[in-house]
């Protein structure tokens, strides 16, 4: 039996397989509210046969958006819009749906990638960004404001409120975004956090605010609710955040009841040097797995079914995150199951597409006609 297509327990959820659709920003919301694009996008992914779908980075407050077009979950209007889309998607898919709650910090107020992705000045419709310290992402950019005590409390409460909204919508799990150079990562890394108070300096201090957010969100959710996190295991910059520090963070999260950890890397500094190749981040997931009993998701240029299967069989990770690969091939799990001799859940409307040589690819199917 294929390991990739074996069931897996994630907190209180039971996934039908170990394929996780990783969060992918669409930059297509209006004032934080999802719409028709997200209905088509999430609907397609929800019928892909993956084990779980994680909705893209969702800002907990307007200032936390990467771009003006990011999804948000900070108001009744944004909650209602997402609820409408989820109601439609769930008519045709029982796939567990998670959401990634995020705050972009100093990387907020950016153009969409296809518009250049650069910082938008306040005069051009952007906004003042915030961070751990008043250090810009790029030396030529306007510096963010260092969050003061009131700002820290505001952001923490925004995560809590968004989590409550997600739970109210019936979302099955939450992933906190502490990766890719966004706000929680900015507190973790010594490159972006040069505070002199209890939130900066030592590793213990740099962990403090992200752990406070985790604790506050967990306390606001029912016991047993599946709450996990995504981290960048390394900044890929000398003197920055690294695997050793990530391991300490991981142990602290496990003690607090974190349900899973999604291991990525980079995004904090334009000085990063990343050797892109298939599975280039898997060794980070493997290192984290050695220090925790939490389920670990590996992600990053894992595009072939056989590679995904090998990662799991070697014990380097427990689940496989697929992102750009599933945008390119929305039926990636179907094709992976065919290669690995497994079965996958497919809506009955698509049963007739099962190739003749794969008799049980879609499980037990029966089609009639006259």
Describe what this molecule looks like in 3D.
The chain is built from ten helices and twelve strands. With 370 residues, it is of the alpha/beta class. Strands 3-4-5-8-9-10-11-12 form an eight-stranded parallel beta barrel, surrounded by five helices. A two-stranded antiparallel sheet has the order 1-2. The chain has a two-stranded parallel sheet with strand order 6-7. The chain is 31% helix and 14% strand. It is globular, with a radius of gyration of 20 Å.
Features:
alpha/beta, eight-stranded parallel β-barrel, 10 helices, 12 strands, globular
How many whole angstroms does the radius of gyration measure?
A: 20 Å
Low-confidence stretches: none
Instruction: Report how far the terminal alpha carbons are from each other.
Output: 37 Å
Count, helices:
10
Shape: globular
Q: Which structural class best describes the helix and strand composition?
A: alpha/beta
Helix content: 25-40%
Q: Average pLDDT value?
A: 97
Largest β sheet strand count, sense and barrel closure: 8 strands, parallel, barrel
Q: Helix-strand pattern, N to C?
A: EEEHEHEEEHEHHEHEHEHEHH
Strand content: 5-15%
For the secondary structure, the number of strands is 12
Strand order in the sheet with the most strands: 3-4-5-8-9-10-11-12
Oligomer: single chain
Q: Layout of SSEs?
A:
Elements: E1 8-10, E2 13-15, E3 19-21, H1 36-46, E4 52-59, H2 76-90, E5 97-102, E6 130-131, E7 145-146, H3 149-168, E8 173-178, H4 183-188, H5 203-220, E9 226-232, H6 243-255, E10 261-264, H7 282-289, E11 296-299, H8 305-313, E12 319-322, H9 324-328, H10 332-340
Parallel strand pairs: 3-4, 3-12, 4-5, 5-8, 6-7, 8-9, 9-10, 10-11, 11-12
Antiparallel strand pairs: 1-2
Helix pairs in contact: 1-2, 3-5, 5-6
């Amino acid at each position: 039996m294929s390991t990739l297509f074996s069931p897996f327990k994630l907190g209180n959820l039971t996934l039908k397989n170990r394929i996780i659709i990783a969060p992918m920003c669409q930059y297509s919301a209006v004032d934080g509210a999802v719409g028709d694009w997200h209905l088509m996008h999430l609907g397609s992914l929800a019928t892909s046969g993956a084990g779980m779908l994680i909705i893209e980075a969702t800002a907990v407050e307007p200032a936390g958006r990467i771009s003006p077009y990011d999804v948000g979950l900070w108001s009744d209007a944004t909650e209602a819009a997402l609820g409408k889309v989820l109601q439609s998607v769930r008519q045709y898919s029982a796939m567990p749906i998670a959401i990634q709650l995020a705050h972009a910090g100093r990387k907020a107020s950016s153009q969409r990638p296809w518009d250049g992705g650069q910082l938008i000045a306040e005069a051009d419709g952007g906004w003042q960004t915030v961070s751990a310290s008043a250090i810009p992402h790029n030396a030529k950019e306007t510096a963010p404001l260092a969050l003061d005590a009131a700002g820290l409390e505001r952001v923490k409460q925004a995560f809590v409120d968004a989590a409550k909204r997600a739970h109210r919508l019936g979302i099955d799990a939450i992933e906190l975004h502490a990766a890719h150079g966004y706000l929680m990562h900015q507190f973790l890394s010594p490159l972006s956090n040069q505070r002199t108070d209890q939130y900066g300096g030592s590793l213990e201090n740099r962990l403090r605010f992200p752990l406070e957010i985790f604790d506050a969100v967990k306390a606001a959710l029912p016991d047993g609710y599946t709450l996990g996190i995504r981290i960048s295991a390394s900044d890929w910059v000398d003197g920055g955040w690294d695997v050793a520090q990530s391991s300490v963070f991981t142990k602290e999260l496990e003690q607090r009841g974190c349900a899973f950890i999604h291991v990525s890397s980079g995004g904090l500094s334009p000085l990063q040097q990343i050797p892109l190749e298939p599975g280039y981040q898997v060794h980070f997931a493997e290192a984290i797995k050695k220090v925790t009993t939490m389920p670990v998701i590996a992600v990053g240029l894992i595009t072939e079914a056989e590679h995904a299967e090998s990662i799991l069989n070697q014990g380097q990770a427990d689940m496989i995150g697929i992102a750009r690969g599933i945008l390119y091939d929305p039926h990636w799990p179907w094709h992976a199951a065919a290669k690995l001799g497994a079965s996958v859940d497919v809506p009955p409307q698509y049963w007739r597409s099962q190739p003749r040589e794969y008799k049980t690819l879609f499980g037990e199917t029966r089609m009639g006609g006259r």
